[in-house]
Every structure is written in structure tokens, then in C-alpha cells.
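Question (not urgent): is this output format expected?
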Amino acid sequence: MGTLEYNSSRPPIEIDDALLAHLKVIISTKLRRQESFMMTWASADDDHRLTAWVHPSIPLVLEFAGTKIPKIDPTRIERMMSHLNSRGELVIDENS
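Got this back:
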């Protein structure tokens, strides 16, 4: 289980390494293009959701639990990017 820490303002979000690897591709693609977007995830206790505005100038740290690089599924990337582009929001959940 890895973590995603955005702007150091809250505790890091715990995310499975495989999903985190896919998020890394999606987020880096958008930020490299200077495209900002909303990102939503469940709180650690799953009783509410949090949303952050993701912008290229705000620090982002992805920490993987292991040293092995998870395999990237191009179909999953395409689906995630399509959802992000159509909604303007990256939702991190079990369907990601």
C-alpha cells in the first residue's frame, strides 16, 4: 500500500501500489500539459469524501510501498483518462 500526498496539508492518502502507478501516469500527463483538475477520494475512515484542486504548482508526492514497478494496463489508463476528461474530476475509488 503506497501513499499520495498532495500539498502536505492532510495525512497522505493510502492507495494500492497498482492503482497508484496508474494514477501517476494520469496525473503526470495532465500536469505536464499544465492542465488542472479536481481529484476526489474517500477519507481514511470512509465517512466522507475529500476533493482537492490539482494544479502543476502544488507539490505532489507519490510513495510506493515496494520497489517493484507495477504493470501498467493501457486500457485502464484510457478508461481513467476518459472519465477524468469527461467529468473534469479524477475520482479515486475501487472503480479506478
